[in-house]
């Protein structure tokens, strides 16, 4: 049987964008609503305490007010996973919902609901395949899928984000017992005969194994009935956010990630929206690969994310389809790249606790600000490589240790 890594936690700084779109915060926090002539700034030294200041500034009409927030001291109406203001702060009084979404087999594509996720973790599961762990907190999605099995790494992610885990079971011998032991049975939500409307089967999908979809709001309702969610707000501090574009960094208009030869992802920066647009490989009947836009079938929109993050981590391979990875506070972290606003910044990731989110730091140990918005985070093996064939192009290739 595989050994199990202790659950991870990491911290990250977070920031807020005035107009977009939660365990105990420890101290009561005030709701800050910026006026058109105010800048909200929250500053902190590394992961220490933060103080909020409101400084009047002369802001031209119709110009967005820049907001800086995190890595701690988030206002009660701000999602600490995105740095964005939420429509109703009450949505943050719950556990985040992590849904396991399959990327393989390809006939489960296009996926549903990923465009609503605050953070998507993307990691290797064996035989050239990857899987997504999508975190829903600041907003819900009525349909997320195809939902597939849990993996050992989900223990760390679920505990770092104080979340509930949604999956279609897991390997009965080598994964499921560890999930139950590491997370707790009642925080794992798996499909069964009476789980709809939280977990249902979509009969319009041809392949049986790709039919399960999740409604994240209904998962929260289910967790309340199970008494693992009591309406508390969990401390999810860690990320820092700043709507100002970075003043240093390298041009990064194109990012590619290869999980070996036939599994490819591309992100292409769109200056008009300030987001990275997602492309994915398609293999035709002659085995030729082309790249096509990755569309969310729930809204027919191409996936567009504000931050793309690459983390180098240590994978442990027990078999071709059984892996774990070290992202807990038992490690010293590792190299990371943060891409935002068409720029790439090198830093490090750290997990300072097993029960708090990841954090990303510069060479001086200060939080690297994310752009307020959604983040897609890749967990690449420590032997993975980076090539820059031309300015602005970043090509990552996954390799196991």
What can you see in these coordinates?
The chain has one domain: 3-Layer(bba) Sandwich (YerB-like fold), CATH 3.50.90. It is 6% helix and 36% strand. The chain is built from three helices and 28 strands. Helix 1 packs parallel to helix 2. The longest helix has 10 residues, at 216-225.
In short:
By secondary structure, the protein is mainly β. 6% of the residues lie in helices and 36% in strands.
How confident overall, as mean pLDDT?
Answer: 86
CATH fold type: YerB-like fold
Helical residue percent band: under 10%
What amount of the residues lies in strands?
Answer: 35-45%
Features:
18-stranded mixed β-sheet; 401 residues; 4-stranded mixed β-sheet; YerB-like fold; globular; mainly beta; disordered N terminus
């Amino acid at each position: 049987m595989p050994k199990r890594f202790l659950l991870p936690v990491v911290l990250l700084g977070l920031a807020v964008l005035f107009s977009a779109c939660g365990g105990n915060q420890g101290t009561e926090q005030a709701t800050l609503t910026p006026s058109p002539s105010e800048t909200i700034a929250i500053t902190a030294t590394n992961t220490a305490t933060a103080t909020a200041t409101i400084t009047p500034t002369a802001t031209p009409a119709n110009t967005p007010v820049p907001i800086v927030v995190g890595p701690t001291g988030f206002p009660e109406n701000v999602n600490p996973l995105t740095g964005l203001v939420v429509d109703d702060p009450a949505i943050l009084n719950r556990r985040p919902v992590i849904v396991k979404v399959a990327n393989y087999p390809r006939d489960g594509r296009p996926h549903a609901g990923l465009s609503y996720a605050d953070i998507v973790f993307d990691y290797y599961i064996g035989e050239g395949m990857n899987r997504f762990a999508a975190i829903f907190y600041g907003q819900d999605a009525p349909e997320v899928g195809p939902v597939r099995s849990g993996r050992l790494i989900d223990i760390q992610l679920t505990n770092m984000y104080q979340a509930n885990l949604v999956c279609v079971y897991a390997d009965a011998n080598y994964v499921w017992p560890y999930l139950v032991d590491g997370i707790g049975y009642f925080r794992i939500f798996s499909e069964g005969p009476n789980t709809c409307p939280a977990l249902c089967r979509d009969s319009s999908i041809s392949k049986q194994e790709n039919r399960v979809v999740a409604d994240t709001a209904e998962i929260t309702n289910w967790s309340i009935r199970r008494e693992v969610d009591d309406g508390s707000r969990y401390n999810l501090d860690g990320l820092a956010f700043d709507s100002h574009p970075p003043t240093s960094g390298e041009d990064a208009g194109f990012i590619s990630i290869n999980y070996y030869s036939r599994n490819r992802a591309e992100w292409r920066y769109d200056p008009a929206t300030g987001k990275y647009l997602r492309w994915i490989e398609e293999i035709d009947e002659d085995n030729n690969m082309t790249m096509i836009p990755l569309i969310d079938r729930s809204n027919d929109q191409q996936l567009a994310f504000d931050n793309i993050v690459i983390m180098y981590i240590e994978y442990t391979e027990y078999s071709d389809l059984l892996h774990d990875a070290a992202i807990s506070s038992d490690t010293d972290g590792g190299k990371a790249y943060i891409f935002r606003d068409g720029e790439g910044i090198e830093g490090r990731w750290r997990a300072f606790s097993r029960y708090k989110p990841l954090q990303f730091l510069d060479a001086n140990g200060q939080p690297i600000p994310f752009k307020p918005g959604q983040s897609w985070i890749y967990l690449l093996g420590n032997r993975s490589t980076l090539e820059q064939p031309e300015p602005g192009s970043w090509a990552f290739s996954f390799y196991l240790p």
